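For reproducibility, we list the full input for the uracil complex.
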Amino acid sequence: MFSAYEIIRKKRDGSSLSSEELEYFVKEYASGNIPDYQASSLLMATFFTGMSDEEILYLTKAMMSTGIIVDLSGVPGPKADKHSTGGVGDKISLILAPLAAACGVKVPMVSGRGLGHTGGTVDKLESIPGFRTQMSIDEYKQILSRVGLVMSAQSEDLVPADRKLYALRDVTATVESIPLITSSIMSKKLSEGIDALVLDVKFGSGAFMKKSADARRLAKKMVGVGKLYGKKVTAYLTDMSQPLGREVGNWNEIVESIRVLRGESDAQDVIELTKRLTAEMIYLSTGESLTSAEKEVDKAITSGAGYEKFLEMVTAQGGDLKVVENPDRYPKARSILEAKAVESGYVSAIDTFGIGMANVKLGGGRAKVGDKVDPVVGITMLKKVGDKVSAGDVLTVVRGNDDAKTKSAVEQVVSSYVFSANKPAERILVKERIS
Ligand code: URA
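The corresponding predicted structure, in tokenized form, follows.
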């Protein structure tokens, strides 16, 4: 018989936990027998003292054991997913999933809600009126077979321990931990029934891992756990030191994704990263070379096949197609303000955490467990790193529904910009591929 107190104390003092101890703690927490305050303490102790590779594996296994493992053997074709460790303006999943499906890969995607300062694919999808992210396993498989992709939230029975721990970490400042991120992401992905997985591991001011060396350690841990479970896994280290694309928010990121799928967007970073990661999914699923896979992705954009897949998925999941096809019909934010440059020069850096928190402040993310997110609020990044500005130029447009919050978000946005007299060096978006 184990004691939650003893387990917390052991971790606090830097000792390793056994597979049985972790399984006991995780199962009892998931069933409601261990309270949030003890789980928070173990999370914080883990945050500070870390975990060995064995413990990460045990924790992942313990999390998986609280739920089902989806059996997708009845769905023909290779099944692959992509997961990002979280960023600001990261709408890649919304574009990549339909593009991969248009190229013949089955994409059973289970996504999360916003976490800390980062946005979540589920919150974005739910900004589409009527869109359902919760469904039975049977419906999930039917949509996957019929459409080629399905984008859902974690169901009650898919790693229920992570559902609770994820929400708890979000509000207890315990997200940025390699063992906790690895077990959270990999327990979900390994329960999804996929054959292959592409991981987008972010580093920079908008990522949970600020340094690329830490992101590399995280990537290696995740790839290692995935391979031990017999999956094909590749990780990419990608730059998150400025928001991806122009839009940060929920509905506005849906609109930006639609534009990319229609071939109407100039968001080069979003386009480049989407192509790389989608091509990797095709490569892992079919063995086709990365170069030829990228050409297929290009074709799926120019032919409109990816956009058609997106519309099919929205229809299958109950979303309002009229609004998706005519985004101007969507309700507008009531309080719109501009954030202006206070000095002249080049934008040399953007504190992307600050931009993410400004969006949370507007209501685009959660301050506490259970908060509702506001789909219409958001930030449009008119100026990004490398752009030349004069004092008074508009840096971003900030959309809120409460004047005081919008004003405060504007102040946060303005203070997130850093200027220099000289043009900063070109950024490298994709730093490394780890397989
Ligand atoms: N995404 C997840 O699913 N879990 C984490 O811990 C971080 C990002």
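The pocket of uracil is lined by residues 85-86, 112, 115, 166, 175, 180-181, 184-185 (CB under 6 Å). The domain at 80-325 is CATH 3.40.1030.10 (Pyrimidine Nucleoside Phosphorylase; Chain A, domain 2). Both points were considered when choosing residues for closer inspection.
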